[in-house]
Amino acid sequence: MAPRPFGRRGLLLAAAGTALAGVWRWRDRPAVAQSMPSYDVLNLALTSEYSMLAAYGKVLEGGVLEDWDLAAAEALLADTRRSVEHLRQAISALGAQPVDEDPYTFPPEELADRARALQLLLRLENLGTSGWIGSQDLTADPATLALGTVLFARRARRAAAVGMLLGDQAAPFAGAFEAGMSLPRVLSAVEQYRGGAR
Amino acid sequence: MRRRDLLTGAFAQPSASGMLTELLRAKYVQAQLYRAGNGAGLLSGAEAGYLAQIGEHKQAHVAALAQALAAPPLNATPPAPVALRFDAALASRQTYLDTAYAIEDVLVRLYIGMPPTAIAETIAVRFQLPGLVSADARALAVLGTLTGRPVVGGVLAAADVRPATAAEVTAVLLPFLADPASAAGTAGVTE
């Protein structure tokens, strides 16, 4: 049976919710649960990367970054595009359909100045890294976990790079062992930004 | 333990216990480097703060790896710490940061080249490999920034980032291994 393509976020959220219904916290779980097809897990990661594409785009459009900050943000956007392309190719290679890119809208107050724009970027990058860690229970497929490690390492570097721009001592880090966040929490946090123009 | 016994399996181990053992050996080197470097008075202000946090993370990695190896289901004996020396690496602020960067870089590239089955196995034995990868990748970006490396391929991953080979990992770590028989007790040696 061919993998079912899905382009509707509702299906994705429903699949995630079902998969996560019995997922244990990382340290408590008895074993790795194989709960979602690989292409669904990768489509969730793709959704997260799309949110970053939109966020970097909006921050750059807003004109609040200059000089080094601006150059760095442009490089961060290009890096995000590479992850998006990598994920789309991997999903297609599995015979599935990469999820479509949805529009995102960010409140003007979160883009109003350099500091707030960087805080938004950092928060979203960190949602992606903790979300991936929290998604380890969703698949036991070695190839998917390996691809996730590649893209996860890339994203963690992006998060730290944004943290360094902020200049806060703690901002680049997420602890010796970054904690995972459950997928419903991640999706809920991003959901507020999904949709058309405000 | 002698040089030839170190990193002989250099991350080519397909099993969880093999991978975690090799990672622990690398983490010994990192933990001791940051401990010695941060105590050498080479850094100040924000830089010192960043490196202190990174150093604390490596100590936590050592403890967690040793614990994971010793606990069920692996029930393995963690490798003993080895004698190390960092004389040249700690000659200046720049050499310290460059050395730290080089080790973080090769480890992060090692993670992305790990055999998929090994990644799955480390997760299956409840070792939080992704959390450790996050800490190292973030440290790499911080060190890339502090050393003034270019954003692409320095702070961030290169467009076509290449996984590290076992030989690369060994080449980066081996210079810091002192021969306990001849160098123990001399300046710069730490355990």
What is this structure's SSE topology?
The complex is a heterodimer of chains A (198) and B (191).
Chain A lengths: L8 H12 L17 H25 L4 H27 L20 H21 L7 H25 L16 H9 L7
Helix pairs in contact in A: 2-3, 2-4, 3-5, 4-5, 4-6
Chain B lengths: L15 H23 L6 H26 L13 E2 L7 H20 L3 H9 L4 H18 L19 H8 L6 H4 L5 E2 L1
Antiparallel strand pairs in B: 1-2
Task: Describe the 3D structure.
- The complex is a heterodimer of chains A (198) and B (191).
- Chain A has 198 residues and is mostly helical.
- Chain A is 60% helix and 0% strand.
- Chain A has six helices and no strands.
- In chain A, α2 (38-62) runs antiparallel to α3 (67-93).
- Chain A starts with 8 loop residues before the first helix and ends in a 7-residue tail after the last helix.
- Chain B is mainly α and 191 residues long.
- Chain B has seven helices and two strands.
- Chain B has helices at 16-38, 45-70, 93-112, 116-124, 129-146, 166-173, 180-183; strands at residues 84-85, 189-190.
- The longest helix of chain B is centred in the N-terminal third of the chain and has 26 residues, at 45-70.
- Classes of the chains: A mainly alpha (198), B mainly alpha (191).
- The interface between A and B is large, with 48 and 45 residues.
In short:
The complex is a heterodimer of chains A (198) and B (191). Chain A is mainly α.
Q: Uncertain spans of chain A, ≥5 residues at pLDDT below 50? A: 1-11, 13-33
Main β-sheet description of chain A: none
The computed structural class of chain A is mainly alpha
Give the distance, in angstroms, between the N- and C-terminal Cα atoms of chain B.
12 Å
Give the SSE string of chain B.
Answer: HHEHHHHHE
The total strand number of chain B stands at: 2
Please give the most extensive interface between any two protein chains, plus how many residues each contributes.
A-B, 48 and 45 residues
Taken as a percent bin, the fraction of beta residues of chain B is: under 5%
Largest sheet of chain B: 2 strands, antiparallel
Average pLDDT over all residues of chain B = 86
Report the principal-axis shape of chain A.
globular
Oligomer: heterodimer
Mean pLDDT of chain A: 84
